[in-house]
């Protein structure tokens, strides 16, 4: 490779070096074949799509990270789409064989998604992956996947589909580098969940010959020639355990993000002090009908029991926009990110929230966990008041709201007058602050969690928390950045919740600073002119 380093966007902290390997090439289509029995060919194509859906489901079931499972199930929904099957049927009835019909149908949707831009454009990689998998099934070839050379390496790709990352073994995959993507792309989110250094939007990485030794810095975004010693600094964090905090004893509670009871052992192994974000969406995915109250009680109770004596912050259903759920039967919206999502779903289906709160309360009553409940997508004081009243009416003692909308951040003091805590979702707060779709790679620089404007909104929330004596946490992707952790502590954040794999590095980072130093770092970052400068001034 050239001696000069390549530059991208660092989205998952850490440094690693190793030989570069790429995702295996997509299966090549054979020459077209005549179709003598259309119905038989249609059945063959539909069976291939069904196998892809089933395989993604199996991968989701065995995924150790809830984030990975959630993304895989969302991709499976795309392969199980009725309109896609109709398009395949139409192609075959027109005389196209199954592999080429699959290719043509996905190609049509790919073009539509790319033209739509934003979130749908980011799903093009998912469509390509689904097409490749279905064609591989039809041709009797192994499904595409990551290399398995039997030795550690750095994985490079134009982009990574969710299924590509589901079975990554961090013992062998040292780091991830992609040509496209942004700070909140699937690659970035999954890399942080797996604790892998990662750089996205790194143009030119695929021009590097395979097996070239490269070094990846997931903090600075630099990708360059590697040393002869393989290393992964983010995996060699201090052996510090116990409660999170600064070197002089200022407490910053370190919590885990989970999606089901399967994630509790990993949280325990990472010495999590509790759960700061229990996503409830996994129970609702792939459902054409709402989970019953009893089903919900069982799912919540299993997690609560695993966290006996510790805090569990459970988020009510976060659906809509990039998380559509079939059972809600929501109408299409011109801009769903600005539409009916999160708590707003209760405007149309109030019973969904009522049933969920009743289930949470029943599960909490049967366990010894310290259960807190929060709502996503709260924008006004009235919404916060109504939600808190509903939580208390259900018999739950602590109600909070997520800060994902700038209006809520600006009125954090008022919100803390009616709720017990705030939790900042930095992914959504970033996209709404900068009017930049979080799945749009071209706007990735605006979505950097080091953006001073974002930090300023977090500071407003932190100050409101200090004044009221109530906790303010961060549960978005920014919480997993070890370099940013001291800054967030200095801004008044009292807890950080993240993938269990990120806890060790964040704990070690906080322990290197006094609280006064954290405050100074926070002031420096907020006063910086841009995200790049903020990061350089602090790190």
Keywords:
539 residues, alpha/beta, Glucose Oxidase, domain 1, Enzyme I, Chain A, domain 2, TIM Barrel, 3 domains, 8-stranded mixed beta sheet, 8-stranded parallel β-barrel, 21 helices
**Could you name the CATH topology of the largest domain?**
TIM Barrel
Number of strands: 16
| Broad shape | globular
Strand content: 5-15%
Question: Can you give a write-up of this model?
Answer:
With 539 residues, the chain is of the alpha/beta class. The chain folds into three domains: 110 residues, Phosphohistidine domain (Glucose Oxidase, domain 1, 3-Layer(bba) Sandwich), CATH 3.50.30; 102 residues, PtsI, HPr-binding domain (Enzyme I, Chain A, domain 2); 286 residues, Alpha-Beta Barrel (TIM Barrel), CATH 3.20.20.60. It has 21 helices and 16 strands. Strands 1-8-7-3-4-5-6-2 form an eight-stranded mixed beta sheet, covered by helices on one side. The protein has an eight-stranded parallel barrel with strand order 9-10-11-12-13-14-15-16. The two termini are 28 Å apart. About 2% of the residues have low confidence.
